[in-house]
């Protein structure tokens, strides 16, 4: 049952991604991206990451997508310009990278490599609780990244003000 | 544990099904006799100023960015609050440091007049 739900979410995530690429209207692309974000949230929940699930919905599907829509409106991109069929450097480079990605994904599959389970198994999470587990790790082991995150947020704030404010 | 989320899934499916069903039903059952007047954008009966897609003011972007930063700040407060007692004084101080750094940002945007709508 869980596996079936996983495949539904995974399919919607991939479809959303394809939609982002294929939509001619940038707003439709953004909407597809929301679909992908929500599907990913579902996958997080299936992995018992309840807190990340809620944050994914609130911050990514909500706040960040709003920001992306603002940027689209700000830039006034109407519809994608008529596609040039010319094979530019960017396209070739993109194709090479995509090909490499496929190889990276297929090799472990062909070689029969499987993942190694870490310490954060379902049983542990069910016992400790998702938020409690995250909290313990975040505020002890990963204290420095947590504090640096505030500096990163500060940089984002100052950068936005420097870019968008007419008179500083 | 996941069983707790089954009601949410059902609600989600119902909401999606309802929305989809309404669109499909009106597309299939509704009569369709379009003319140029009917297909034009309707807005309170007034002639619509052409195009809603004009560039938005950058002020909106600034508000969204400020919201996002403090949104993420609050997100970090939640797991901290859950384990507040266990983390003790050390946890309290480290959160104060985190908040202080963002308070600098808050003072900065206040000083720069970002909070005022000019």
Fraction of helical residues of chain A: over 70%
First-to-last CA distance of chain A: 56 Å
**Tertiary shape of chain A:** globular
Class by helix and strand content of chain B? mainly alpha
Ranges of chain A with pLDDT <50 over ≥5 residues? none
Could you state the oligomeric state of the chains shown? heterodimer
| Tally of separate helices of chain A | 7
Largest sheet of chain A: none
Number of domains of chain A: 2
Q: For the terminal residues of chain B, how far apart are their CA atoms?
A: 50 Å
Could you give me the name of the CATH homologous superfamily of the largest domain in chain A?
Answer: NADH-ubiquinone/plastoquinone oxidoreductase chain 6, subunit NuoJ
Structure description:
- The complex is a heterodimer of chains A (168) and B (118).
- By secondary structure, chain A is mainly alpha-helical.
- Chain A has helices at residues 2-22, 26-46, 50-75, 89-111, 122-128, 130-139, 143-164.
- In chain A, helix 1 packs antiparallel against helix 2 (26-46) and helix 2 (26-46) runs antiparallel to helix 3.
- The relative contact order of chain A is 0.07.
- Chain B is built from four helices and no strands.
- By secondary structure, chain B is mostly helical.
- Chain B is 69% helix and 0% strand.
- Chain B has one domain: Methane Monooxygenase Hydroxylase, Chain G, domain 1 (Up-down Bundle), CATH 1.20.58.
- The chains are: A mainly alpha (168), B mainly alpha (118).
- Chain A binds chain B through residues 2, 5, 45-46, 48, 51, 55, 58-59, 63-64, 66-67, 70-71, 73-76, 78, 125-126, 131-132, 134-136, 138-139, 143, 146-147, 149-151, 153-154, 156-158, 160-161, 164-165, 168, and chain B through 1-2, 5, 9, 53-56, 58-62, 64-69, 71-73, 75-76, 78-80, 82-83, 86-87, 91, 94, 97-99, 101-102, 104-105, 108-109, 112-114.
């Amino acid at each position: 049952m869980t596996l079936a739900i996983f495949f539904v979410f995974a399919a919607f995530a991939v479809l959303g991604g394809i939609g982002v690429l294929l939509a001619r209207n940038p707003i439709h692309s953004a909407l597809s991206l929301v679909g992908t974000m929500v599907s990913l949230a579902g996958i997080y929940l299936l992995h018992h990451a309840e807190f990340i699930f809620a944050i994914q919905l609130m911050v990514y599907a909500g706040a960040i997508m709003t920001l992306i829509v603002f940027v689209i409106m700000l830039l006034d991109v109407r519809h994608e310009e008529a596609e040039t069929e010319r094979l530019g450097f960017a396209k070739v480079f993109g194709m090479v990278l995509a090909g490499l990605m496929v190889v990276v994904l297929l090799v472990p599959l062909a070689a029969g490599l499987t993942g190694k389970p870490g310490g954060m198994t379902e049983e542990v999470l069910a016992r400790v609780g998702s938020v409690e587990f995250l909290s313990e790790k975040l505020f002890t082991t990963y204290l420095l990244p947590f504090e640096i995150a505030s500096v990163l947020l500060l940089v984002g704030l100052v950068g936005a003000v420097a870019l968008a404010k007419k008179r500083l | 544990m996941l069983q707790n989320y089954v009601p949410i899934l059902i609600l989600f499916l119902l909401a999606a099904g309802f929305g989809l069903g309404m669109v499909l039903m009106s597309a299939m059952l509704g009569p369709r006799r379009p003319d140029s007047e009917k297909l034009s954008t309707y807005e309170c009966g007034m002639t619509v100023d052409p195009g809603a897609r004009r560039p938005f003011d950058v002020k909106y972007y600034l508000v969204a960015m400020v919201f996002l930063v403090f949104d993420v700040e609050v997100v970090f407060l939640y797991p901290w609050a859950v384990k507040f007692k266990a983390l003790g004084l050390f946890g309290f101080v480290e959160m104060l440091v985190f908040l202080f750094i963002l308070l600098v940002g808050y003072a900065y945007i206040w000083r720069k007049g970002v909070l005022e709508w000019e």
